[in-house]
Design brief:
The complex is a heterodimer of chains A (366) and B (126).
Chain A (H helix, E strand, L loop, with lengths): L9 H6 L3 E5 L2 E6 L3 H10 L1 E5 L4 E6 L3 H8 L12 E7 L5 E11 L2 E6 L4 H11 L6 E4 L4 E7 L3 H6 L14 E6 L2 E6 L8 E7 L3 H12 L4 E3 L2 H11 L34 H10 L3 E7 L11 E3 L5 E11 L4 E9 H4 L3 E5 L2 E8 L10
Parallel strand pairs in A: 3-13
Antiparallel strand pairs in A: 1-2, 3-9, 4-7, 4-8, 5-6, 6-7, 9-12, 10-11, 11-12, 14-17, 14-19, 15-16, 16-17, 18-19
Helix pairs in contact in A: 2-7
Chain B lengths: L8 E2 L4 E5 L4 E6 L1 H7 L2 E5 L6 E2 L4 E7 L3 E5 L4 E6 L2 H4 L3 H4 L8 E5 L10 H8 L1
Antiparallel strand pairs in B: 1-2, 2-3, 3-9, 4-6, 5-8, 6-7, 8-9
Classes of the chains: A alpha+beta (366), B alpha+beta (126).
């Protein structure tokens, strides 16, 4: 039995009644009280999430920009100091190695946030792609803890603990400052579809910062929220989760993330030719989102059936939307079948999938 | 700690049964079961008049996490189902022994010998 990795907040979670589970090799809180209630708290007021399992990587050097343009599909040249960019990075076949955030701190100084489950593979991939570029890649994952405050009251809550002018930090922008006396990279980003902040800080400060945020947030209705709510919130917002809507064999184009794939960059990315071909010829499969009008959850890997009952795809993600009170999800479907009638069989009941364009609920950010 | 009322009998698969003494009984799932499942989102129950052997699957309870079969703790015919669970399955997380009962049944045989009393069920949970 291999030991699970722990964030600096593992005992904090246990003391607050969390149910801890193995998530990508990390012992993480899936819920504290109730996934549905934590989800609603984030849409109504705010939630505090420990996402310290995410990986952080410094990319520095005279060719940092050129290297990142090579590495990721979105256009890093558009960044300026204080700006954040969401992007996939692809393999030569156009499949997705990971999706990540790119932070520009200065002209030769960038910072990446990558998925926890992909940290070792991403680092190997990033190092391999960096050969020939004058850059220094440094894994900072163990140095940083990461707390996310998400929800319509998030800005008010964080503002009570910092002198930084949060009103001046736009969506997908960041600044450096102290929050409750803890030095943070204060990033106006998130994975819930709500306004909010992700606070990168030294691992040793995590418990003090979490306690301060919880105490400051409680009067605003903030609750601790686990990875269960994080998943239902991101699916309601229509955001991809690596391993579901994106994978080594699922390109960002197939996933409907064409807006993150810039094929006319001065410096083309890894996978450029394959992505150009996919864009020109179309892909054999596409990711679609659906709702059912029924409370039965349509779980990942459920076969998707076409009008004649033949299997034309499979479900990638599925949950119950706590806001809509019906099942929502995503599926990978053969492109010719995607516009037709689709259904799933749940325990002998045929349930039609109603096509949906996310977000499934009205969002403040997105 | 799980709530385990003393006056009920328990199946190893975490259903409870409350015999009324007149050949009828009420059936539901235990506090331990609802807690292990987490947020309950859907309950599928049989039709009135359906008959089940002890140990047969009589329905499904679904949570955000997983779907689980429900097993008949005794042989019975269904007299009434709790239709309130259609619209408020989450009441199973709050009142599994009370408002969130599942079935009222007519027993069609002896109670199985392997049903547990509260003390034995508590020992099973450890």
């Amino acid at each position: 039995m291999s030991a699970l990795q722990r964030t600096p907040l593992r005992d904090f979670h246990a003391a607050h009644g969390a149910r801890l589970v193995d998530f990508a090799g990390w012992e993480m809180p899936v819920q504290y009280r109730s996934i549905l209630e934590e989800h609603k708290a984030v849409r109504r007021a705010a939630g505090l999430f420990d996402v310290s399992h995410m990986g952080e990587v410094d990319v520095r050097g005279p060719q940092a920009l050129a290297f990142l343009e090579h590495l990721v599909t979105n256009e890093v040249a558009r960044l300026y100091p204080g700006r954040v960019l969401y992007s996939p990075m692809c393999n030569e076949a156009g499949g997705t190695v990971d999706d990540l955030l790119v932070y520009m701190r200065g002209p030769e100084d960038y910072f990446l946030c990558i998925n926890a489950g992909n940290i070792p593979a991403d680092l190997a991939w990033i190092h391999a792609q960096a050969s020939g570029f004058e850059v220094t890649i440094t894994d900072r994952s163990a140095d940083y803890a990461l707390l996310a405050v998400q929800g319509p009251r998030a800005a008010e809550i964080v503002q009570t603990l910092t002198g930084a002018k949060l009103g001046a930090v736009g969506y997908y922008h960041f600044c450096e400052g102290t929050v409750a006396g803890v030095h943070c990279l204060i990033s106006r980003t998130g994975y819930t579809g709500e306004d909010g902040f992700e606070l990168y800080h030294a691992a040793a400060d995590a418990v003090a910062l979490a306690e301060a945020l919880l105490a400051a947030g409680r009067p605003f209705g903030l609750e601790l929220a686990g990875l269960g709510a994080r998943d239902s919130l991101r699916l309601e917002a229509g955001y991809p989760l690596y391993g579901h809507e994106l994978s080594a064999t699922l390109s960002p184009l197939t996933a409907g993330l064409g807006w993150t794939v810039k094929l006319n960059k001065a410096l083309p990315c890894v996978g450029h030719d394959a992505l150009v071909k996919e864009k020109a010829n179309g892909a054999p499969n596409k990711v679609v989102f659906f709702r059912t009008g029924d409370r039965r959850i349509v779980r990942a890997d459920t076969p998707v059936l076409g009008p004649d009952g033949a299997v034309v795809g499979r479900v990638l993600s599925g949950t119950l939307s706590p806001i809509l009170n019906e099942a929502i999800g995503s599926a990978l479907v053969e492109t010719p079948a995607a516009a037709g009638a689709l259904a799933v069989d749940i325990r002998g009941t045929l349930i039609p999938l109603q096509p949906a364009k996310p977000p499934f609920v009205a969002l403040k950010q997105g | 700690m799980s709530n385990i009322p003393a006056d009920l009998r328990y199946a190893k698969s975490h259903e409870w049964i409350r015999p009324a003494g007149d050949g009828t009984a009420v059936v539901g799932i235990t506090d331990y079961a609802q807690s292990a499942l987490g947020d309950i989102t859907f309950v599928q129950l049989p039709k009135v008049g359906a008959t089940f052997a002890a140990g047969a699957t009589f329905g499904v309870v679904e949570s955000v996490k997983a779907a689980s079969d429900l097993y008949a703790p005794a042989a019975f015919t269904v007299l009434e189902i709790n239709t309130a669970l259609d619209v408020a399955p989450e009441s199973l997380n709050k009142e599994p022994y009370d408002a969130a009962w599942m079935l009222k049944v007519r027993l069609t045989g002896e109670l199985p010998a392997d049903l547990l009393d509260a003390a034995a069920y508590a020992r099973q949970l450890g």
